[in-house]
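lol ok so funny story. i was supposed to be doing the assay writeup but got distracted and ended up predicting the structure for this chain instead. priorities right. anyway since i did it might as well share w the group, maybe its usefull for someone
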Amino acid sequence: MTVRVLRAERRAATPWKNGGGLTREIAAAPEGADMADFAWRVSLADVARGGPFSRFEEVDRVITLVEGPGMVLTVDGSPHPVAEPYVPFAFPGDAETDCRLLGGPLVDFNVMTRRGRAAARVEIVRGRLALPAPPAAPVLLVVVLEGSAVLEGVGTRLGRLDAALCTGARDEVLAVEGVAALVALSGTAAEVQEPSCCYQVRTEPGELRLKRRHLTERRE
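and the output, tada:
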């Protein structure tokens, strides 16, 4: 198994063009893809005010409230309250979507996949569980939304909003003290490329190796 540890403090915040919030990208494929050509993209957003969502043609979205009083998303004229934390809501990214805040700023967790290239299953997990192995989940992204978590097999500890991108997970156990999102990515473009600077944990039968790659640093 290979694990890329993605620490929350290393994420750069990107302001929205309309000034309504900030986005912090957690991971995406292909690495370096912009909003027009990603296969999948996972991020956290600080939402300061409501308004229309950007349209993403041929993209499916799953959004989960992490902090704040919530919002109502009106998708193609149909209102959908997103007011309970840690309850994923799926909707088409190319639908006409408007956001109304229910009382103040919020933080949401956002998963986007491009149809025909990738697909995602988002699960909110608590406690101790075995991670699904390939081929059911070729790529797994663990994001701690509250508290902390440990990948027991490789001994990797994650703090709040830290993430771990796992490929080839076998016989790995995740212990969550709080709440985490488990994103299972699949499809023709569920590929994962190494970032410019990361931790890698590789496990082979009877072997555990941890190394740090020193490459040209790229801010997310």
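The CA atoms of residues 11 and 159 lie 14 Å apart. The radius of gyration is 17 Å.
back to the writeup now i swear
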